[in-house]
Write the structure tokens for this entry.
Amino acid sequence: MHGLGNDFVVVDGRAEPFRPTHEQIRWICDRHIGVGGDQLLVIEPPSAAGADARMRIYNVDGAEAETCLNATRCVAWLLLQESGAGRLRLETLGGLIDAARFGERDIALGLPAPRWDWQSIPLASEADTLALDMASGPLVQPTAVNVGNPHVVCFVGNRDEVDVPRWAPAIQNHPMLWEGANVGVAAMAAPDLIRLVVWERPGILTRACGSGACAAVLAARRRGLTQESLVKVDMPGGCLRVEVHGDESVTLIGPTAVAFSGRLPADVKAA
Ligand SMILES: N[C@H](CCC[C@H](N)C(=O)O)C(=O)O
């Protein structure tokens, strides 16, 4: 499935558990020798009270990520199609996320307020998360926020002029960010429009990033770059809508799509 070209391999591990090794994850996500995707998602039975399902999110290097909001939108759509319900609650390492249908293909997610304190990002030592003391070429003094997973957002004049693969890795791997972070490169096109590209952990440029879109809007508000409560975030794969409420809880709205479905080779499933 994909959300604006941020693509995922989704495995249903509810009836038959699927706990892939790092090697299997790397193979599944590899676009040349495996299936190909920005992340691997495994749907599991819920473990938290009130959750309808649990979703595990694996990055292309095999590491488990706390959250992925485009993935959450995709899996929510799949499960809502299956049940016929209008809403559900998904459990992730990053917390519980409410999802609701929003038209035929769109899903709206309700997210709790973000965390701004340095321990929650997490940073290695105390620092002002509004403007971290980091620089790499045109990427300077990013704002850090945890929206379920760690993000830093670097505001620039023109997103398209920044060579992101050249400059973002030094920020992503900065020793202060001891668990790494997804690095957003954002430009304000208007108070209600941000142009964004995200260099995700562990070092991939994605066409869209749901948590990155939320992080960019929240960071722009905190920096006084916008006061709008509804902001569109335009990424290479298309636009997501981010609504920020009074308590900083967020609604994220955007489309989902199924590319194809099939079965993984038995030796991958069995290994
Ligand atoms: N594309 C995802 C984020 C994946 C984040 C993951 N790469 C991490 O290490 O936190 C999204 O739509 O929110």
User: Anything to note?
Assistant: Residues 90 and 176 are 31 Å apart (CA to CA). The chain has two domains: 2-112+255-270, 135-248. The chain is about 20% helix and 35% strand. Residues 6, 59, 65, 68-70, 149, 182, 200-201, 206, 209-211 surround 2,6-diaminopimelic acid (CB under 6 Å).
